[in-house]
Amino acid sequence: MTLKVGVVGAGTMGQGIANAFASAGNQVTVVDVKLEWAQNGVNKIFASKDKLVSRGKITEEAANQAKANLKAGVYEDLADADLIVEAVLEVMNVKKELFAKLDEIVKDDCIFGSNTSSLSITEIANGVKHPVIGMHFFNPADRMKLVEVISGANTPAEVKDKVIEISKAIGKTPVEVNEGPGFVVNRILVPMINEATFILQEGIASASDIDTAMQLGANHPMGPLALGDLIGLDIVEAIMDVLYHETGDSKYRASTLLRKMVRAGKLGRKTGEGFYKY
Ligand SMILES: NC(=O)c1ccc[n+]([C@@H]2O[C@H](COP(=O)([O-])OP(=O)(O)OC[C@H]3O[C@@H](n4cnc5c(N)ncnc54)[C@H](O)[C@@H]3O)[C@@H](O)[C@H]2O)c1
Prior knowledge:
Blueprint: E1 4-8, H1 12-23, E2 27-31, H2 35-54, H3 60-68, E3 70-73, E4 83-86, H4 92-103, E5 111-114, H5 121-125, E6 132-137, E7 146-151, H6 157-169, E8 173-178, H7 185-201, H8 207-217, H9 224-231, H10 233-247, H11 256-263
Parallel strand pairs: 1-2, 1-4, 2-3, 4-5, 5-6, 7-8
Antiparallel strand pairs: 6-7
The structure holds nicotinamide-adenine-dinucleotide.
Protein name: 3-hydroxybutyryl-CoA dehydrogenase
Enzyme class: oxidoreductase
Family: Belongs to the 3-hydroxyacyl-CoA dehydrogenase family.
């Protein structure tokens, strides 16, 4: 199956998603606010391919084939796309406005996929003419195997089936998810990280002992606080707030320690300090 795929948003996730589709033989056009930003994203994918070649992980031929499948473009270049996956800002209106604009450009049977981590697919799709589905990839998207395929209230079953098939064709393992806050992974993972911050806040154990406990006691590759630092504590807080506001359930309240860390700008690896110093 060779598809024409548009990836909108050439940041961390857009690059990984575009890379995954291109490496599996699909024709990928990457779009961002400015052509130059899209080109920058494509250049970074090229550089990551070159690095894999220099380390002997992939052949030069495979890298060149993937590169030949990738180009930067503008919205109008997506007119004949079979699938468009957006990985723009995690802001409802930005995603809705993007799909409203694409509605006027793309062919009738184009599918719109959203890589949102926490927003409602049903709400993103509201008022959009083309079918919308969640395609939630995980960072780094070119390597992580999972795709949560999320159906909103109005996502047609045949679109879901097609997207499951497409996900498998690019070497991913899709799981079918009916829309619900946090989907599956974040609904389980993020409250676990938050719980670890409560344990720290209550003085029950030190940060490193909490992480060691979960690594050795639950066989997790990384402790929950180190993982929170990797994801970004602002993101962890934002996902807790979505879970809390969508359900009104107090079990999803963020800890006061987590909020304090975010207010102090201690967001984890990206700011050089979170529960650990980097
Ligand atoms: N980072 C993660 O681990 C992760 C994991 C899964 C899902 N997500 C989701 O993926 C999406 C993107 O996250 P990211 O971490 O790649 O962000 P990022 O900030 O690295 O990249 C976002 C990109 O989108 C571009 N952009 C913003 N508005 C745009 C618009 N209207 N049209 C075109 N391009 C636009 C920006 O210029 C930027 O290049 C978000 O919805 C996020 O929640 C992120």
